[in-house]
Write a structure and sequence with these properties.
This protein is an alpha/beta fold. The strands form 2 sheets. The chain has a 7-stranded mixed beta sheet with strand order 12-11-7-10-9-8-13. Strands 3-2-1-4-5-6 form a 6-stranded parallel beta sheet, sandwiched between helices. Helix 1 runs parallel beside helix 4, helix 5 runs parallel beside helix 6 and helix 8 packs across helix 10.
């Protein structure tokens, strides 16, 4: 049985609750005390203490607040609450960095990368190219790590893979809540699972509280993606096909289905992480993960530079 540690949590991100429950199950009484309504919904309606990943358990937790750590530990039956996240070193087989505040990713991931402990980093790898390159250099070529969003694993994206002809799509429009640097991966990872990551340019012409990102592929496919602070779910994107073809909408965070697609995205993603730890090999889509993080960081850089178009080739 693999032993995992989980690191959390930042504002608006309840992943330590749900990710831990996907491995360990959950206490029904403690679930009522979880502050995230969506998590309460899909754990009670979909998970139901029936769908858990075999072969691994979350055994250690750290958050910046001992009271929060205790709440998560109670919900998911995590036996060890540590005072410092580095206390997990030597105690766990893998670490889930379940925070999407990327300005902290390098600092928090570094001890585990340098110790060779497999890690999952939530969504974008880093906030800027400096930290991105530090993580990539520290990881080297063989160190097993995952990053990104669960969107590539959702029911909606997997169904679209079966029904959508990528060559017929001319334009993609997507929308998300929060902001680009934290939630851009929710859109891009799903899009890349369908269309690849051969990006030509990235441009963010947004304003504070509203990112508007235009991504152009080398084959001419164009994606216009918005991340607007304060809007409600669902998160998703629509693919518009050539004349005569129907458009295809891919929602992957939708409360109308009890967040079922969302839950199964998390489940499959954590299954993939478990498989990576068992095998010691990076996922087959690792290069796409890197490309998505570069595009998200480029979009943030474009916005800070007044909306200039970033040529992706010029960055490397």
């Amino acid at each position: 049985m693999l032993s995992f540690g989980i690191i959390g949590l930042n504002e608006g991100n309840g992943h330590p609750y749900s990710f831990s429950a996907i491995f360990n199950g959950f206490d029904e009484e403690a679930l009522a005390d979880c502050p995230f309504a969506a998590i309460r919904t899909y754990l009670s309606r979909v998970h139901q203490n029936r769908h858990m990943i075999s072969g691994a358990r979350v055994t250690h937790i750290w958050t910046q607040d001992a009271a929060i750590s205790a709440k998560v530990a109670r919900l998911a039956g995590i036996p060890h609450i540590v005072d410092r996240y580095t206390d997990m070193l030597g105690e766990v087989d893998g670490v889930i960095l379940a925070r999407d505040d990327p300005w902290n990713h390098w600092e928090m991931a570094r001890p585990f990368i340098e110790a060779g402990v497999p890690i999952y980093i939530d969504k974008v790898i880093a906030q800027n190219f400096g930290d991105y390159h530090r993580i990539i250099a520290a990881a080297g070529e063989d160190y097993p790590f995952m990053a990104g969003s669960s969107s590539r694993f959702t029911n909606a994206v997997m169904d679209a893979r079966k029904s959508l002809d990528p060559a017929s799509v001319r334009s993609i429009h997507g929308i998300s809540t929060v902001n680009w640097i934290r939630y851009g991966n929710h859109l891009l990872d799903g899009i890349v699972a369908l269309f690849g990551a051969d990006f030509k340019s990235v441009q963010n012409i947004g304003e504070p509280g509203c990112d508007v990102v235009r991504i152009v592929y080398r084959n001419g496919l164009c994606a216009v993606l918005e991340a607007i602070d304060g809007i409600s779910l669902p998160i998703g994107f629509t693919c518009y096909q050539k004349a005569g073809g129907a458009h295809v909408t891919v929602p992957f965070a939708d409360e109308t289905d009890g967040f079922e697609s969302y839950f199964w995205g998390f489940f499959r993603m954590l299954e993939a992480f478990t498989g990576m730890v068992e095998s010691g090999r990076r996922p087959a889509w690792h290069e796409e993960t890197l490309a998505v993080s570069r595009a998200v960081i480029a979009g943030e850089l474009s916005k800070r530079m007044g909306g200039v178009r970033i040529d992706m080739d010029a960055l490397w």
